[in-house]
Amino acid sequence: MAAILAVQPGSTLRCRTRRDALPEGYQYRDDGCEVAPACLKCPLERCRHEEPNGLLTVRLRARNPQIVASRRDGETVDEIADRYSLSRRTVFRVLAEA
Length: 98
Description:
CATH architecture of the domain at 49-98: Orthogonal Bundle
Radius of gyration: 27 Å
């Protein structure tokens, strides 16, 4: 059972707080990642660390519309697969998801 602290009326309870416990007292380092040298200079809408599968998701989000556009422009699946170094199955999957 936890002890209850009795405080006299009119008195103040003073406790010590660590200097680094508050966000104002902490020096944040903005190291960035592979995308940008600093988080505040990052071109991404959402941090790669917040995305499922991280940077892979960010790269696929940029690549997949290009694959769809290439197919609309008349390129064959084999040509697209060769250009992006993918298997034919991956190209078909990307096109099916679009």
